[in-house]
């Protein structure tokens, strides 16, 4: 049986080939990486287990993988699927933003009233001179 090199296409006999596990693992990781650095990764991976981060630990407020969920560190914690956690936090942020917008509006109105009073006092002071 004859194979060819994927790089140079030169033919070579199969012979006595050995599996290089380190190289195979490295190649597998490289395939998972995006080739375009400008692209946003669609999935994030656990640094410890190289698994997709599918859960949100409510206790620690961080994303974790299913292997981390079963670890001692997270044994008594509460979890949500990432999409559900995103919706909850998105709603909380929207409520906070709405509240801050109202407060900002009130502050701007107060500032305008104060500026108006300052102008009146300055005009009155100029008239008395």
Care to describe what's here?
The structure is a single chain. By secondary structure, the protein is mainly alpha-helical. It has helices at residues 21-32, 66-69, 82-128, and strands at residues 2-4, 11-13, 55-57, 62-64, 79-81. The chain has a three-stranded antiparallel beta sheet with strand order 4-3-5. Strands 1-2 form a two-stranded antiparallel sheet. A hairpin with a 4-residue loop joins strand 3 (55-57) and strand 4 (62-64). The longest helix has 47 residues, at 82-128.
Key descriptive features of the protein:
mainly alpha; elongated; 5 strands; 129 residues; two-stranded antiparallel sheet; 3-stranded antiparallel sheet; 3 helices
Entry summary:
The protein has helices at 21-32, 66-69, 82-128, and strands at 2-4, 11-13, 55-57, 62-64, 79-81. By secondary structure, it is mainly α.
Layout of helices and strands, plus pairs?
Elements: E1 2-4, E2 11-13, H1 21-32, E3 55-57, E4 62-64, H2 66-69, E5 79-81, H3 82-128
